[in-house]
Specification:
The structure is a homodimer. The first copy, chain A, is an alpha/beta fold. In chain A, about 40% of the residues lie in helices and about 15% in strands. Chain A folds into 3 domains: about 15-95, Arc Repressor Mutant, subunit A; about 140-335, Aspartate Aminotransferase, domain 2, CATH 3.40.640; about 365-455, Aspartate Aminotransferase, domain 1 (Alpha-Beta Complex), CATH 3.90.1150.10. Chain A has helices spanning about 15-30, 40-50, 50-65, 115-130, 145-160, 175-185, 200-210, 225-230, 250-265, 290, 325-330, 340-350, 355-380, 405-415, 445-455; strands spanning about 70, 75-80, 170, 190-195, 210-215, 235-240, 270, 295-300, 315, 385, 395-400, 420-425, 430-435.
């Protein structure tokens, strides 16, 4: 049999690849018949005027991929692929890369001036070359010990926690950490109670793992533990320091009641402390984890709101009693946060920058909070009612409006305002509004845009 | 009632916090009786010789946390917490942070000289300040468009793929991406077939989501599609380009058979291409995704082996037919990879560094592969048999040894050798051995250590 490829000797595509591709196409299009014999390497080399190595490389690639057989002492034969249909399997052409911008909300994200890039950059440049980081090896499944020690100290001193580093698990977001938690508890629990309204992204994770969901309505006095008692859930996901999104604080008697419920029912409390660090009225409200004497609380923390949302670093603090199970299964899960980022953050905390940073953003957000609240009152008078919130990065408003929800949603998007509807009764619309991203100088403009969204 | 706190005016702890803590302890220890009235702000201010603001701050913190009530026109009263037990709820003392080193295997991770830190660092310093990165806002759930375009091109040109950017989902590790995939397919499938031996960390994810697992034994001629046909699984997780850990390549007829199976059974093939990029014998084996005409293949890729394991950047390519479901649920899942890292990688690829890097590591690992293979042959002669592998970062060996498995495991750890046992029959032990991390100059020493592990 003779093969007559058209080869481009000027192309930067190696000749052996051109030959390989030619023969491959001849086979898949059926032009080279099954079982027929290819010219020997010597023959092909002379007839095609190519080096033996070129022919050899092309043939061996075809053998490796199973298009031809190498029968010792006999030669190379076409495999029988006649039963398969190879139409249009050419790879797609290279498409041009064009940069792309996502819609950026005016009020989303963290304050532009709050974060000291230069410090982070210095620590990054240090960490990536630091032999201790060892970027060439994979990450510890639980998280780098140095960072876990810093986080443990942080939670103990800043959030009144009671933790040790071996309870800390680092991961790229609360959702991934919940997946690991479910791996720990799924043999014991299958039903979870969640706040309504609450943090849906947590609920979604439980749904994906086929947990039964029990919604417990949060009323003006906060989360009703009595309702939890009535439900069959033995796990509850809750945000006691600053209920999301309503912003209520769980008072100490309710906290003790909740802990008592967990203790008596062999239950588990998952405390989501997404922004408990940030409170203007006074000190942050101490965490539930620190009040817990019976090892019933899983604490979830994140640096998305307190540091940067674009860095994905969160952590989970596991009760000591669950550690034996975790240690048993921890190697089932790979670490999801970059080891370099972990070390940068550890140094950032170790050098005291985190505490300074928190002081700074508390100042900034307090200004934004009061200025926005004032602006809304002056602009909308009694048409809007603000559930005063002295912590976190969002406020909750009830607005009198007859404008249709869908229309409001669309206009909010149009004016780049991130507005989370909570619910609507009669002519009142309740929604939460981030303000962390708003430029302090632009708060009046922002308020005017909000007016367009709600009323025009 | 009179309160007499001992306050340290020299302490750097604010006086209002000292006062707040004092009263709180008096309440939780029962020394201040329920319903009793606290001195008014004016009284306390004069008797304790503290500013009114100090008293006010302490009181309002106690009100916020629910330890005391503020009854308008009457004053501040102790709440009744007598039914709760507050023993030992003081936060734990700050423990000293000491740096910590994990056991580092001699042969784990990637080559020390393969990665050009300076380029990465330059791009990082650029990306973190680039307004386009916008570190202050959260990441796109699917991954930054710029990176998805680069990855799509990369897979098309380097792996013979047929993809467009909207099929690409970026995430911190194959496990997290599998979680999202399961979110997409769980209403349609509940059983998955996996290779045995295979990549357990993928199997674990399916187990956590309560999928039924069907193990299909990989034999010398690779993955038996016939067995898959017999099973009730409609989803299969497979590594066709370089079976993990055995290293076999799936020939084209088997690939077509597998694709045919998926098409006829409305099945789904999950192609794990963890190191298919790296092949010494010739070009990489084109991916299954590129051969697929019927939109049945999910492609999983990662930069852990090809770039750095300490960066957690992986990606999943979804068949077009699953995109509508994905688009519907994508906002349920937060992005798990740092936006900064995503932009750095996108620029790294866009400037052509990735292709250069792959050429470099191919050279390096080819050397290590042949040098280790030779070393093992010369040192252990016929006591060890190496299943020649011309790709990837590990080799598979069968060694004649009577030494007990457990002992071998312990000694491997002792000598910092990462050795994955595959199975043992009669006196033969089969295991896979990473070589990417071994220093080229130390391969003989490494081989000697391996001798100790296997035979001494």
């Amino acid at each position: 049999m003779i093969i007559s490829p058209i080869l481009d000797r000027k192309s930067n595509k190696p000749l052996y690849i051109q030959l390989y591709e030619y023969i491959k196409t001849e086979i898949t299009t059926g032009l080279l018949k099954p079982h027929s014999k290819l010219p020997s390497i010597r023959e092909a080399s002379s007839t095609l005027n190519l080096s033996k190595t070129t022919i050899e490389s092309a043939y061996s690639q075809l053998v490796a991929e199973g298009y031809i057989d190498n029968v010792p002492k006999k030669g190379f034969f076409i495999c029988d692929l006649s039963e398969y249909n190879f139409d249009n399997i050419e790879p797609s052409p290279k498409h041009t890369v064009q940069h792309y911008k996502e819609i950026q909300y005016l009020n989303e994200g963290v304050d532009r001036d709050s974060f000291d890039i230069s410090i982070w950059r210095r620590l990054y440049n240090k960490a990536i070359t630091d032999p201790e980081t060892n970027i060439y090896n994979s990450c510890s499944p639980q998280g780098e010990e140095f960072l876990r020690e810093e986080i443990s100290n942080f939670v103990n001193t800043m959030r009144g926690g009671k933790t040790v580093p071996r309870q800390v698990v680092v991961g790229a977001g609360v959702q991934y950490l919940l997946g690991i938690l479910i791996g720990i508890i799924k043999n014991k629990y299958d039903t979870v109670a969640v706040e309504k309204p609450g943090f849906n992204k947590a609920k979604f994770v439980f749904e994906d793992y086929n947990f039964k969901i029990r919604h417990i309505a949060v009323n003006d006095s906060g989360f009703p533990v009595s309702e939890l008692r009535k439900s069959d859930a033995k796990v509850v996901y809750i945000s006691p320091s600053h209920q999301y999104p309503l912003g209520t604080i769980m008072p100490v008697n309710k906290r003790m009641e909740l802990l008592d419920w967990a203790y008596k029912n062999k239950g588990l409390i998952i405390e989501d402390d997404y922004d408990g660090m940030i409170r203007y009225g006074g000190m942050p409200i101490p965490s539930l984890q620190g009040l817990d004497k019976n090892d019933c609380v899983v604490y979830l923390g994140s640096f998305s709101k307190t540091l940067l949302p674009s860095l994905r670093i969160s952590y989970m603090i596991i009760p000591k009693k669950l550690l034996p199970i975790y240690v048993e299964i921890k190697n089932r899960y790979t670490q999801s946060t970059s080891k370099i980022d972990q070390m940068v953050l550890a140094h950032f905390m170790n050098e005291g920058h985190m505490v300074k940073h928190l002081r700074r953003i508390k100042r900034i957000y307090k200004k934004k909070n009061s200025s926005l609240t004032e602006c809304l009152k002056n602009t909308f008078k009694d048409k809007i009612e603000i559930n005063s919130s002295d912590s976190g990065l969002h406020i909750v408003c009830s607005a009198k409006t007859n404008k249709d929800n869908q229309q409001i949603k669309e206009d909010a998007k149009k004016f780049r305002i991130l507005l989370n509807m909570i619910h609507r009764n009669d002519s009142k619309l309740m929604f939460s509004l981030n303000y962390s991203g708003i430029n302090l100088e632009r708060i009046q403009d922002f308020t005017n845009l909000l007016g367009k969204v709600l009323y025009e």
